[in-house]
Amino acid sequence: MDYFYLPASGQVLGANVLYINTGFYPTESTSALSANGIYLIVPSDPTADPGLYTNTPIYTVNGLVADETWLATPLPLPTAKANGTEEVQIAANLEVANIVTASGYSAEVLSAAGAALEVDRPAVYQTVIAAEQVVTDQLAVDVAAIAAATTVDEINNIVNPPTGILSTGRGGDGDGPLDLNNSFYTEFNSVSLTEAETELYVPGTSTVITYGAVVPNGFTSNGNCFTTGDYRVQIREVATGMVISEFVCPLAVEHNEDVAF
């Protein structure tokens, strides 16, 4: 159903009640409706996690229509902690269930195998149990971090880490394959973290590459930062050191490659 925004009164009316309240039919042209202070709303989805924020719609007149955007207001911290904890638990449960399903073994079989000492477990079981352990270990870290959080934004960074695309590579601009190219976000999606609040970290050499330190709005190592054969890079949150994503930096002598995270 279509909805309409009336800026003079601040009302939002559904198509089924528009005529009753205004005397205009919703089927009239947008030009006729807008000439009388009635704007068809162009809807959009809420941007923030409803378990952590209240999403309030905002309408902005844009020509003959009204664009819908959203204002995210943090929920009370105890509520957000409870909801955030539940969200990471549900996500971990699903991830473990997917690992079990993909393995072909039942949860009961894996549980029985897990009761044995690791040295006594057949490798076919240990591989699956180790994958489950990675998820459960991360869940414990996330639950503890949520409990220690002092703001809802901190919780959101854990529950809903940023996603996007980093244009990156190594060996460009005549530099050797151990040098990180000038790298930039071409897409960055988060309601609680900005690009400038992230950093790149190279585990192989313990190198921290700060956003904007050398390249405005981007990253560069300004010299070698990798060791031969180890080209791992982590995108991290500066404030907490939380790893948002880890990838292997591609060799990109001519042009950067897009790395999704």
Report on the structure:
The strands form 3 sheets. A 5-stranded mixed sheet has the order 2-1-3-5-4. 21% of the residues are buried. The mean pLDDT is 96. It contains 6 helices and 12 strands. A hairpin with a 2-residue loop joins strand 4 (53-62) and strand 5 (65-74). It has 3 domains: 3-74, no CATH class; 77-157; 162-260. By secondary structure, it is an alpha+beta fold. The protein is extended and about 80 Å long.
* Beta content: 25-35%
Q: Quick one: overall form?
A: extended
For the sheet with most strands, the description reads: 5 strands, mixed
C-alpha end-to-end distance: 36 Å
Q: In which order are the strands of the major sheet placed?
A: 2-1-3-5-4
DSSP strand tally: 12
List low-confidence stretches: none
Question: How many whole angstroms does the radius of gyration measure?
Answer: 25 Å
Helical content band: 25-40%
Number of helices: 6
What does the oligomeric state look like here?
Answer: single chain
List the topology elements:
Layout: E1 3-6, E2 11-14, H1 18-22, H2 30-35, E3 39-42, E4 53-62, E5 65-74, H3 77-103, H4 107-114, H5 123-148, H6 152-159, E6 163-168, E7 184-189, E8 198-202, E9 207-210, E10 232-237, E11 243-248, E12 257-260
Parallel strand pairs: 3-5
Antiparallel strand pairs: 1-2, 1-3, 4-5, 6-7, 6-12, 8-9, 8-10, 10-11
Jot down its keywords.
261 residues, alpha+beta, five-stranded mixed sheet, four-stranded antiparallel sheet, 6 helices, extended
